[in-house]
Design brief:
The structure is a homodimer. Chain A is mainly α. Chain A has ten helices and no strands. Chain A has two domains: 1-51, Arc Repressor Mutant, subunit A; 53-198, Tetracycline Repressor, domain 2 (Orthogonal Bundle), CATH 1.10.357.10. Helix content of chain A is 72%, strand content 0%. In chain A, helix 5 runs antiparallel to helix 7 and helix 5 runs antiparallel to helix 10. Chain A is elongated, with a radius of gyration of 19 Å. Chain A binds chain B through residues 29, 111-112, 114-116, 122-125, 149, 151-154, 157-158, 160-161, 164-167, 169-170, 173-174, 177-178, 180, 188-189, 191-193, 195-197, and chain B through 29, 111-112, 114-116, 122-125, 149, 151-154, 157-158, 160-161, 164-167, 169-170, 173-174, 177-178, 180, 188-189, 191-193, 195-197. Chain A binds a DNA duplex through residues 1-8, 11, 32-34, 37, 41-46, 48-49, 52-54.
DNA sequence: AATGTTACCGGACAATTGTCCGGTTGTCAA
DNA sequence: TTGACAACCGGACAATTGTCCGGTAACATT
């Protein structure tokens, strides 16, 4: 007979809010976990019981906006039901790439703190990622059954690579070392990797 | 009038050897920098003066094998001078992907320890990576000038994405969570992303 | 209101990273 | 041979991560 305390959720929210605030003011890297605990008025034990590490915390912060993004994407795709799957796939990536670029620094942090035999789910096993993966896999499968290309043997694999091919480190390098803007990255990526795939 | 001490190189080699040994025996993550210093019979100051962090050390360890790989790849490509660039590109990736997969855990470590405003070169700015990038960019440029496809507007960008689209985290996930073998990854990647690009 | 459970507080603690620096040793050049 | 100087040794140190635990406060059930 487990007991649910209604202050538990409040504490979580306090932590998330304090963390988001500190991250925005000083940058993710410059903020320590103990600092977050103190700012949230929370003990260290409490903080770590909820979020095993900074990456875990970032994942939680990212989750909400990511889910909003996914549902909006899903809505957009639904409205295109009468268009060919190729167009839907292209539209998805024209929206996804900027989103990935904008959130690269969070994902870096999430992946940087992942341990080897972690019981906690991978970024790739997180809810938002799985939703996105399924959405894209569906489009590719549809393209495949239409027989418009011979290349898409393994839709899930292809989807996985497409999503993660703009890995956070790559994005940051393209932005800061090569000087590309978000839109340039998005445009070129789609031109080079989505168009050839669907024609 | 800088003075070169010939024991300096010896010290570097000692460190690299001790690190490689410890990494192989206990895994990269389980070995601390102080441990490496002690095993190499070297002071901590000395260790950190040469290698700013564990990633830096891993990069140095990876460098040699990577350069060997690159030169062998270059040789292979040279022998295919009379074949179309498309075939050369395909051959490159059929060899590169397994290499990337096998070395994923090193690259994870290298990228995990990178700081923001680091004076030290990025992984993407390392010598091996630049060589590889140029090799692949060359092929794509050649394909482009042959006019066989309209998609390759920005060869360097395309090359960059292609190389890093199998990011280390993605590779590890495909292997350990999805159960793909190295060869399956290589085969599917080439089928989905190299073939469509060059036809 | 009393009780048993659950969560929280918050400091101590160990481990690691990375820095610094005084003292020492080896090397090169004159 | 000797002096200048680079490189090294190695411990002290601060900061961070993550764990643990005894004591305390809040909650839900009765």
């Amino acid at each position: 007979m487990p007991v649910n305390r209604r202050d538990a959720q409040e504490t979580s929210d306090l932590i998330l809010q304090a963390a988001a605030d500190l991250f925005n003011r000083h940058g993710i890297e410059a903020v320590s976990m103990h600092q977050i605990a103190k700012a949230a008025g929370v003990g260290q034990g409490t903080l770590y019981r909820r979020y095993a590490n900074k990456g875990d915390l970032c994942m939680e912060l990212l989750k909400d906006s990511f889910l909003v993004f996914c549902s909006r994407l899903d809505e957009t795709v639904s409205k295109m039901a009468d268009e060919p799957a190729q167009e839907r796939l292209y539209t998805i990536f024209r929206q996804l790439i900027p989103h990935t670029v904008e959130n690269a620094k969070w994902i870096v942090e999430i992946q940087a703190h992942q341990r080897h035999g972690d019981p906690k789910p991978d970024f790739f096993q997180s809810e938002p990622y799985r939703i996105l993966l399924r959405l894209i896999t569906n489009q590719i499968e549809e393209i495949q059954t239409m027989g418009s290309t011979a290349f898409l043997h393994d839709p899930a694999f292809t989807a996985h690579i497409l999503i993660s091919s703009l890995s956070p480190h790559t994005v940051l390098h393209l932005q800061h070392q090569c000087g590309y803007t978000t839109d340039e990255i998005s445009e070129r990526f789609c031109a080079s990797f989505i168009r050839p795939l669907i024609r």
